[in-house]
TrEMBL record:
It comes from the Bacteria. Belongs to the Rv0495c family. This is DUF3109 family protein. Pfam families: DUF3109. InterPro entries: Rv0495c.
Length: 193
C-alpha cells in the first residue's frame, strides 16, 4: 500500500486492469448484490433533490419502496446504502431498449436535467473506499459480475486507477490524482507494479 495525504491506496489499484464491458455485463452491478450502493451522508439530500426530475422514469416498484422507506437505508453492516427493489436491484436502476441496466440519475445528469452525477461509490466502482476516521483506504473490489471488465482491461492494458480517473478526481481532487500518477510512475520504475 502507498499513502497519499490521508488516503492509503492498495497496490491492486495500480496492478489490476479494468474496463467496463457493458455489452457483456449489461449493467449487472446495479442489480446484483445483497444491499444497495454505499451512500455518503451528504449525498442523501442530493438523492432526495433529484427525485422530482427522475420520478416518472423509476419503476412502480422502486417508487413504492422510496415512498415507504426513502432513498436510502442502513444495511446489516451499519452502512448507509441506496434502497433496493426485489431484495437486490437499486431503486435508481432503469433499462434501455436493449435490456441494459443504467442509472436514471446519471442519465438525467448527462441530459443536463440535474447537477448530481450519482453516488460517488457507484462512480468509483470497482474501487471501494473504507473510512477509518483518521485515514481512508482505497481498495480494488473483485466481483464475478465484472469478469468481462477485467478481461477487457487486460486486453487494453488499462489499470484500475486510470480507468477511474474522473471519479477519483471527483472524490479526492486533481492534485491528489496527480500525486497518484507520480506514485504509479515511481512504482513502475521500481518494478513494483
Amino acid at each position: 500500500m502507498v499513502q497519499i495525504g490521508d488516503v492509503v491506496v492498495s497496490f491492486d489499484v495500480f496492478r489490476e486492469k479494468f474496463l467496463c464491458d457493458l455489452d457483456a455485463c449489461k449493467g449487472k452491478c446495479c442489480i446484483e448484490g445483497d444491499a444497495g450502493a454505499p451512500v455518503e451522508a451528504d449525498e442523501v439530500d442530493k438523492l432526495k433533490e433529484v427525485l422530482p426530475v427522475i420520478w416518472e422514469e423509476l419503476s412502480p416498484e422502486a417508487r413504492a419502496v422510496i415512498e415507504k422507506q426513502g432513498v436510502v437505508y442502513t444495511d446489516e453492516e451499519g452502512d448507509l446504502v441506496t434502497s433496493i427493489v426485489n431484495g437486490k436491484d437499486c431503486v435508481f436502476t432503469c433499462y434501455d431498449e436493449r435490456g441494459y441496466c443504467y442509472c436514471v440519475i446519471e442519465k438525467a445528469f448527462r441530459e443536463g436535467r440535474c447537477d448530481f452525477y450519482k453516488p460517488v461509490s457507484c462512480h468509483l466502482y470497482p474501487i471501494r473506499i473504507d473510512d477509518y476516521g483518521t485515514f481512508k483506504a482505497v481498495n480494488y473490489h473483485r466481483w464475478d459480475v465484472c469478469k468481462a471488465a477485467v478481461l477487457l482491461g487486460k486486453k487494453e492494458n488499462l489499470p484500475v486507477y486510470k480507468f477511474l480517473k474522473e471519479p477519483l478526481v471527483r472524490k479526492f481532487g486533481q492534485a491528489w490524482y496527480d500525486e497518484l500518477e507520480t506514485v504509479a510512475a515511481e512504482l513502475q520504475k521500481q518494478k513494483l507494479i
